[in-house]
Design brief:
4-stranded mixed sheet; alpha/beta; binds ligand EPZ; 14 helices; 28% strand; single chain; 28 strands
Length: 421
């Protein structure tokens, strides 16, 4: 089994390029199903979830290949409209294929996505929106059978919560539908804008992405194009957190400060100095970190839930008491137990976590419980005295391209090993 071994308390110092965003690449890969011809996605990260997505595309009839940092998808022929259970189980976010497959073929059959480490991941908003667009959906024996027998038509859809996945699925289902679709209370995440930019390059007519009202006028056909995946704002946050927890400094190349304003303001409140120039963010953290009164995770542009675990680790080395309120997922504190084993003083009660800053963290053998929780353990290991060994790191590999190589480039003592157990 592969593990990460970290020898802590080495200052992070240097500059690093930020990989393409997992949460942009996955909907972009799904969006390729809607377009005929060839699509080239540049800056597409080498991640297990991206590989799982290309396996789904191949199953549907597309041809996929990787050339360096680019993935090339030919989608002239979509010969199937089902996503097999083993592929759905491999990647819970495969649900993002639903809108594109129905949009292109008029039907889709997939197994109900299970929950995940973050708790149940319902899709009621996806289903309700697609039904309003003329899709009949029957759920039986864990399988979703979807069909738009008379073709998809536009609809006025109001989401009860600005769901990222539901917004993406409706945009993709609406791109080739008859008439206009309006999404109110749409998610505003930058990944939505990246998807809309890509589909508009393919010939779609999508307006207002990045705002809470998105309008899509359906077109006859889409044609593949070239597109560069946006930088990963959570990976960028992770590198900033590494600099903060070790009292170092880092320059992020190819990152977009406007995508992480809520996060940058938290680092500033902790006493870090930040300078943005062009597509680079420089942060130095040479003063002792200060606690932050309260952080609430919210839909974009609020503080992102994906940065919550990462920030728990950093706040553990800040002087004073900080409070985190997790408003998006119901069980996103599962990593706290392992952080406490490293000396973090974190107490959770429902949505709230109370973090007491400590002078020292201590290396330990710990287990990742989810993708971002695993990244939090890496940061705690970087800031801890002694050696930390992290197992179950396949969860980290879902979202980080060779995390040990990237962090080693900026001064971390971290390596990947294989152990029998
Ligand atoms: C996306 O998940 C991201 N995943 C998540 O990142 C991210 O945490 C999340 O958005 C919030 O920003 C991808 O983009 C692949 P939601 P998604 O629909 O689309 C509830 C990571 O670590 N909900 O915005 O599944 C849901 O249970 C991952 O990279 C319903 O109740 O998130 C949750 O409480 C983790 N019914 C809330 O809405 C629905 O039909 C937000 O979910 C849909 C969602």
């Amino acid at each position: 089994m592969q593990k990460l071994v970290i020898s802590g308390e080495k200052k992070i110092c240097g500059e690093i390029s930020v990989q393409g965003a997992k949460n942009a690449a996955l909907p972009l890969l799904a969006g390729c199903v809607l377009a005929r011809g060839e699509t080239v996605l540049h800056n597409c990260p080498r991640l297990s979830d991206v590989y799982a997505s290309t396996r789904i595309l191949t199953h549907l009839g597309c041809r996929c290949c990787r050339k360096g940092d680019s993935v090339i998808i030919s989608s002239d022929v979509i010969s199937r409209s089902d996503i097999p259970e083993e592929l759905m189980r491999e990647m819970r976010s495969s649900i993002v294929f639903l809108g594109a497959v129905i949009g292109r073929t008029g039907k889709c059959c997939l197994s109900f996505p299970g929950g995940c480490e973050l708790g149940p991941r319902p899709i009621d908003m996806h289903i309700s929106a697609l039904r309003q667009m003329g899709v009949s959906i029957c759920e039986e024996y864990g399988v979703l059978r979807c069909e738009a027998s008379k073709g998809l038509h536009g609809a006025k859809i109001t989401l009860s919560f600005p769901s990222v996945g539901a917004t993406e699925n409706v945009i993709m289902a609406a791109a080739l539908a008859k008439g206009e679709t309006v999404i109110r209370n749409a998610a505003r995440e930058p990944e939505i804008t990246d998807l809309a930019d890509f589909l508009n390059l393919c010939g779609a007519r999508i307006y207002g992405a990045g705002t809470s009202t998105v309008r899509i006028s359906g077109v006859e056909q889409l044609q593949g194009c070239e597109h560069r995946v946006m930088p990963d704002r959570i990976v960028a946050t992770t590198y900033l957190g590494a600099a903060a927890i070790t009292g170092g400094e880092v320059s992020l190349i190819g990152s977009k400060p406007e995508d992480i304003e809520a996060i940058l303001s938290v680092f500033e409140e902790m006493g870090c100095n930040i300078y943005n120039y062009g597509d680079c963010i420089y942060m130095s953290c040479h003063k002792p970190l200060k606690s932050v009164k309260t952080i609430r995770t919210m839909p974009y542009p609020g503080f992102p839930t994906d940065a919550q675990s990462i920030m728990l680790s950093v706040l553990s080395k800040a002087k004073g008491t900080s409070i985190m309120v997790e408003n998006i997922f119901e069980s996103r504190y599962r990593q706290v137990g392992e952080l406490v084993r490293m000396g973090c003083m974190i107490k959770t009660e429902g949505k709230v976590a109370i973090i007491e800053g400590v002078r020292k963290l201590y290396g330990a053998r710990v287990v990742a419980t989810d993708l971002r929780g695993g990244a939090a353990l890496v940061l705690a290991g970087l800031g801890a005295q002694g050696e930390t060994v992290i197992s179950n790191i396949k969860l980290i590999d879902r979202g980080y391209e060779a995390i040990e190589k990237s962090l080693s480039e900026i001064g971390a003592d971290i390596r990947r090993i294989t152990e029998a157990t």
